[in-house]
Design goal:
Layout: H1 6-12, E1 28-41, H2 44-50, E2 56-72, E3 76-88, E4 94-103, H3 106-116, E5 120-122, E6 124-130, E7 134-141, E8 144-152, E9 156-157, H4 160-169, E10 172-179, E11 185-193, E12 195-205, E13 208-212, E14 227-240, E15 244-248, H5 249-261
Parallel strand pairs: 4-5, 4-10
Antiparallel strand pairs: 1-2, 1-14, 2-3, 3-4, 6-7, 7-8, 8-13, 9-12, 10-11, 11-15, 12-14
Length: 262
């Protein structure tokens, strides 16, 4: 049996566990990925407090997402839910900042957090059709119901090309933090990524409602619902591409420190 050498570790190591990673290498292809997104007004100061610099919240809207992924390469069949905020970057480009995510599959939790910095936690989200005419999304954390979203099922069609452009052309941002062995931050980055090879199979809207409940470990209600302003239901095929570092906070802090000491 050959030894796990320095050279082989450097060449082959990719993710944990090193001998049997929890997920394969990216990118990942999703077929029939189903989005149910409810946009609602919240407290603008609460948004400002959670959006990392240099990003700025575009308005007082939060986009609460329920997503079914029945066919995803490497990850299989799972569901997730969470909150996305419209932001502007330093160049004034409109983008999406993902604030929270809850899902039911260990592989994409580990891969999403370690590769891109998705803020993923283990929970039990669902997305289904309820009572024949209602699109229903739910989130349970432990035994507690944290979120319930509803929409009239396929009431009005949306422009498929407009929905494709939203998915394909909008930059997405994440705050990636990985700790050092001493508990300090070893990686602290603003990550940017895009969705590629997007084809929208259908898109609809309808009347919608959203209810969020307070929870210490799943604080989605910290961005409270003031008023639901719209919803959309989109089914698409797409590829989750690799990301890029938009800002290295640790390097930026070191540069500022050096500049001060000169």
């Amino acid at each position: 049996m050959t030894r796990l050498s320095l050279a082989s570790i450097r060449q082959d190591a990719f993710a944990m566990p090193v001998h049997n990673p929890a997920y394969p290498r990216p990118p990942y292809r999703f077929i029939n990925r189903e989005y149910f997104v409810i946009s609602y007004q919240t407290d603008f100061e609460a948004l400002r407090a959670i959006v990392p610099e240099p990003l700025l919240p575009e308005n007082d809207l939060v986009h609460y997402e329920f997503i079914r992924m029945p066919d995803s390469s490497g990850f299989g069949d799972y569901t997730e839910t969470g909150q996305v905020i419209s932001v502007r970057d330093e160049d004034g480009r409109l983008g999406n900042y993902t604030h929270s995510m809850y899902l039911d599959d260990e592989g994409p939790i580990a891969g999403g957090r370690e590769l891109w910095g998705f803020p993923k936690k283990l929970a039990r989200p669902t997305l289904s059709v309820d009572g024949n005419d209602t699109l229903l999304g739910t989130l349970d954390y432990g035994t507690q119901r944290i979120a319930t979203g509803t929409m009239g099922y396929k009431h009005l069609p949306l422009d498929i090309e407009a929905e494709r452009k939203k998915l394909a052309e909008t930059p997405n941002y994440l705050l990636k933090v990985i700790p050092h062995v001493d508990g300090s931050a070893r990686v602290c980055e603003l990550v940017r990524f895009y969705l590629r090879d997007v084809s929208v199979l259908g898109a609809w809207t309808g009347p919608a409602g959203l209810e969020l409940h307070s929870h210490a470990l799943a604080p989605v209600a910290d961005l409270p619902v003031k008023r639901v302003v719209g919803a959309r239901h989109v089914i698409a095929n797409l590829t989750l591409d690799i990301g890029e570092v938009a800002l290295d906070y640790l390097a930026a802090a070191e540069s500022m420190k050096l500049a001060v000491n000169r």
